[in-house]
Amino acid sequence: MNIIGYIIACIAIELTPGPNMTWLSILSITAGKRAGLMATAGVATGLLTIGLAAALSAASLIASSTLAYEVLRWAGVGYLSYLAWGIWQDRSETGTETKISDTSFFRMGLITNLLNPKAALFYLTIPAQFVTSGSPPLASLLMLIVIYVATATLIHIAIVLFAGQAGKWLTS
What percent of the chain shows pLDDT beyond 90? Predict the structure, then answer.
């Protein structure tokens, strides 16, 4: 198993702009690092959940069914739009930010990621290429899932910390 090659693939995928990167950046700029870190924990939990589903082949339905993929994709678009609308409404009605709990940021991160078809497609296409014959496939896939979640989480934390600092710089 080529772990280094797999980690490089994980980094390349995670550095490709997508809903997680955009949302975590905006959230960290507007609500701060703590909110971004709580959302990152939710995103990581979502990645792990999708990875386990893919390892157990439940996510293959999404890859094989155009309808299932489109429903998931548009549900994600709808949820992100709902989050954006909620932030806009809270600020426009009161002129200030509404306090949101840490668990709400976690839940938003989890749902946002569970509705992200990019994660499911990644798990269905990339890890299997790095499982070598002779190794137990499920154990190998689970190890690769953990590596991906760890890599993605480190990148998301870096994005949150950078965006949170940028938010402080922009407001001062």
Answer: 32
